[in-house]
């Protein structure tokens, strides 16, 4: 059978097409295998072992789970660099991202003579205007630089009480750097004096909110000591200093080391101050103390460059000569040494003359003993009156003859020395001046010693036995918040603050009560107090509200007029809200008409699970460094908040005739070489710690209700 001539070409074409298809398929397979292999090798070489490459014809499909979107994009870019990017098909997934952690909120506050600067990160819920307004009120006429950033995350736990406390500190510290974090406030500040430093530390620690840790580093200028004085005594009572001064920490350690070698025990105070006559002061004093110890007793007195060594009675003259000779040759050239070997003094036939001046705890002074003449007697009386007051002095002196030379100077020095004590006595004899008693001044012994050296001379013998009593210290004895409120309760118990009917004018009978309140509150200047006014339910609501506000304002103004520091006080009128008795009876209405004194405490803040990461920057010369949130210098951040409603309360009842509209509720008002000292406080252990502990304020007392009716008004 013959094949048609037409069929043969068709078969040839069909065979050629089939071969072409098979060749194309073979070429695609080769290209696919080569592409898949090249892309896979490239991804593995770059550390993307998690990825897999699949060929689909000329297309390259990438599969696998990328650790992040950036890694996923990088894998696609690498594949696109091997084959045409249009051939790359992305079939990869990305690991689900973790919950975003809130940033570490923090505020760093710097205040100096140039103004106030704030920098850090705060939550978006912060009332920025209120914070700026409060800082501006503290800064006064000085500029405020606000460099704060905002992030929309929940407010961290304990932030509000920390920030509120930091602002109160800022008001009291004109030269300071304050770092605030949730539950922690770190302060570096400079005070005007050592006494001011102690006052600030006492007040700031007592005002710490619940759950807030505080680290204080307050420096004070070194005192200028004139004359630069040290007096060391070694006798049967032991080794001790009446006064001790050093110019450097090294000199201080050298002097204290010599005192310990001589037998001194316990806590030894030696002030580092300015005014030293020589850089070899510490060496000279230490050598002289060693000489006293070698003699077995006596005293060493330094006043500037003049040194006096007085041996004890009965000291071996040969030993005295040897020790003094060695000391004279060893002392630096600038110091002049006078050495005294005393002999027993002969007593007078009628006994040695004496002069005694005593100060009782009640402030009464008795002056007794011998004086040289009438003029001296009058001079002594006038000096005593100048020091203690005319009504406190009782004279019992008599004029005597044969008094030793310099007796009048010793008498006047005794009266001046007594003025440094809270109570005690000074006894003057021809051989000695003895000062003994109690004081609330830690430096009283050194001050008395310098006084006697200046008045009597370095060679004169005197002894000082002064005891520091903390209760007499006007700084250490400052009342706590609970004590302040208890004193307010005691002052107003069974006494009534009265207003003229229907007005906010205090009656004359109320003035003594306000006087007594002012006396108490002057010592509570760091306490945040709300003066709250309340009425009964008679009269219209708005009239009662205005009247209660006006009367609260009147009490606040009366305290301000009596020089009470009311910068942390606020007057608020509540009208007929919060009754404490039944308004249906006259007795109940009388009880509801009242004034309350409340301690303002920050609102409690619920804990936040968000952790703080590192945030450390310092604000100096335009460079900002926030403290580390994990260490002792935690960074701090937060928002501004109004005073909290949680309060400790003392109450004064008031009347409430509806009167003129009272002013709007008042807004709360918040508040040289240097000797550095870092103080961290924990009342639980009663002292300074090496790390920043939690400072827990005293437990809040129960609400104190103090009844006191005001007027006979019928409204409110």
Kindly describe this structure.
With 716 residues, the protein is an alpha/beta fold. It folds into 5 domains: 7-94, Histidine-containing Protein, Chain: A (2-Layer Sandwich), CATH 3.30.1340.30; 106-221, hypothetical protein tt1634, CATH 3.40.1520.20; 229-340; 355-430, Aldehyde Oxidoreductase, domain 4; 481-603 and 641-671, OmpA-like domain (60s Ribosomal Protein L30, Chain: A, 2-Layer Sandwich). The chain is built from 15 helices and 33 strands. Strands 6, 7, 8, 9, 10, 11, 31, 32 and 33 form a 9-stranded mixed beta sheet that branches. α12 packs antiparallel against α13 (511-521). The chain is flat and about 170 Å long. Mean pLDDT is 78; it is low at 345-349, 604-648 and 653-715.
Q: Could you list some keywords that capture this structure?
A:
716 residues, Histidine-containing Protein, Chain: A, hypothetical protein tt1634, 9-stranded mixed β-sheet, 6-stranded mixed β-sheet, 31% helix, flat
Mind sketching the topology for me?
Layout: H1 7-45, E1 52-56, E2 59-63, E3 65-66, H2 69-82, E4 88-90, E5 93-94, E6 106-112, E7 115-123, H3 128-139, E8 144-151, H4 159-172, E9 176-181, E10 184-190, H5 194-206, E11 213-221, E12 229-235, E13 238-243, E14 245-246, H6 249-261, E15 271-272, H7 281-295, E16 298-303, E17 306-311, H8 317-330, E18 336-340, E19 355-359, E20 365-371, H9 374-388, E21 393-399, H10 407-418, E22 423-428, E23 433-439, H11 444-456, E24 462-468, H12 481-492, H13 511-521, E25 529-534, H14 541-561, E26 569-573, H15 586-592, E27 594-600, E28 617-620, E29 623-625, E30 647-652, E31 674-675, E32 678-682, E33 687-688
Parallel strand pairs: 2-4, 3-5, 7-8, 10-11, 14-15, 17-18, 20-21, 23-24, 25-26
Antiparallel strand pairs: 1-2, 6-7, 6-9, 9-10, 11-31, 11-32, 12-13, 12-16, 16-17, 19-20, 19-22, 22-23, 25-27, 27-30, 28-29, 32-33
């Amino acid at each position: 059978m013959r094949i048609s001539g037409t069929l043969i070409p068709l078969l040839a074409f069909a065979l050629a097409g089939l071969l072409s298809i098979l060749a194309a398929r073979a070429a695609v397979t080769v290209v696919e295998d080569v592409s898949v292999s090249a892309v896979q090798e490239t991804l593995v070489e770059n550390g993307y072992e998690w990825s897999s490459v699949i060929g689909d014809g000329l297309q390259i499909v990438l599969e696998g789970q990328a650790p992040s979107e950036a890694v996923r994009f990088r894998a696609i870019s690498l594949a696109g660099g091997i084959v045409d990017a249009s051939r790359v098909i992305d079939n990869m997934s990305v690991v689900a991202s973790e919950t975003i952690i809130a940033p570490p909120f923090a505020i760093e506050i710097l205040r100096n003579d140039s103004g106030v600067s704030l920098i850090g990160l705060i939550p978006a819920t912060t009332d920025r205007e209120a914070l700026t307004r409060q800082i501006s009120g503290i800064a006064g006429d000085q500029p405020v630089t606000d460099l704060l950033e905002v992030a929309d995350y929940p407010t961290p736990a304990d932030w509000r009480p920390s920030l509120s406390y930091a602002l109160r500190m800022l008001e009291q510290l004109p030269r300071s750097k304050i770092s605030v974090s949730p539950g922690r406030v770190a302060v570096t500040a400079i005070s005007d004096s050592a006494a001011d430093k102690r006052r600030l530390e006492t007040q700031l620690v007592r005002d710490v909110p619940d759950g807030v840790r505080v680290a204080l580093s307050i420096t004070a200028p070194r005192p200028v000591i004139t004359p630069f004085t040290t007096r060391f005594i070694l006798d049967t009572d032991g080794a001790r200093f009446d006064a001790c001064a050093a110019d450097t920490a090294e000199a201080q350690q050298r002097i204290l080391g010599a005192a310990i070698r001589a037998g001194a025990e316990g806590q030894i105070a030696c002030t580092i101050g300015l005014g030293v006559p020589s850089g070899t002061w510490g060496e000279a004093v230490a050598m002289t103390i060693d000489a006293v110890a070698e003699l077995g007793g006596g005293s060493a007195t330094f006043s500037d460059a003049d040194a006096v060594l007085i041996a004890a009675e009965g000291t071996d003259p040969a030993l005295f000569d040897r020790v003094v000779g060695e000391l004279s040759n060893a002392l630096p050239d600038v110091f002049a040494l006078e050495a005294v070997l005393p002999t027993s003094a002969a007593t007078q036939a009628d006994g040695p003359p004496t002069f005694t001046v005593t100060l009782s705890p009640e402030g009464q002074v008795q002056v007794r003993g011998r004086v040289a003449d009438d003029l001296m007697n009058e001079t002594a009386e006038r000096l005593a009156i100048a020091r203690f007051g005319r009504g406190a002095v009782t004279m019992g002196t008599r004029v005597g003859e044969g008094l030793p030379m310099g007796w009048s100077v010793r008498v006047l020095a005794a009266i001046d020395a007594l003025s440094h004590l809270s109570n005690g006595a000074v006894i003057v004899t021809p051989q000695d001046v003895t000062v003994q008693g109690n004081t609330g001044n830690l430096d009283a012994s050194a001050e008395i010693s310098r006084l006697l050296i200046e008045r009597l001379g370095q060679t004169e013998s005197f002894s000082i036995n002064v005891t520091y009593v903390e209760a007499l210290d006007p700084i250490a004895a400052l009342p706590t918040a609970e004590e302040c409120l208890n004193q307010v309760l005691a002052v107003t118990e069974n006494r009534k603050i009265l207003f003229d009917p229907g007005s906010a004018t205090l009656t004359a009978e109320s003035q003594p009560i306000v006087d007594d309140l002012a006396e108490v509150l002057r010592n509570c200047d760091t306490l945040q107090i709300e003066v709250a006014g309340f009425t009964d339910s008679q009269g219209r609501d708005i009239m009662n509200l205005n009247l209660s506000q006006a009367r609260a304002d009147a009490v606040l103004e009366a305290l301000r007029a009596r020089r009470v520091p009311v910068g942390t006080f606020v007057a608020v009128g509540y009208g007929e809200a919060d009754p404490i008795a039944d308004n249906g009876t006259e007795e109940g209405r009388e009880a509801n008409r009242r004034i309350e004194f409340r301690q303002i405490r920050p609102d409690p803040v619920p804990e936040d699970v968000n952790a703080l990461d590192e945030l450390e920057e310092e604000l100096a010369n335009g460079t900002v460094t926030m403290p580390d949130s994990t260490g002792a210098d935690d960074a701090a951040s937060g928002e501004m908040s109004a005073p909290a409603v949680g309060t400790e309360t003392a109450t004064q009842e008031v009347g409430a005739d509806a009167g003129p509209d009272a002013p709007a509720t008042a807004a709360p008002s918040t508040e040289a070489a240097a000797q550095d000292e870092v103080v961290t406080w924990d009342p639980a252990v009663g002292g300074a710690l090496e790390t920043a502990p939690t400072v827990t304020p005293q437990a809040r007392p129960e609400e104190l209700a103090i009844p006191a009716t005001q007027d006979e008004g019928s409204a409110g």
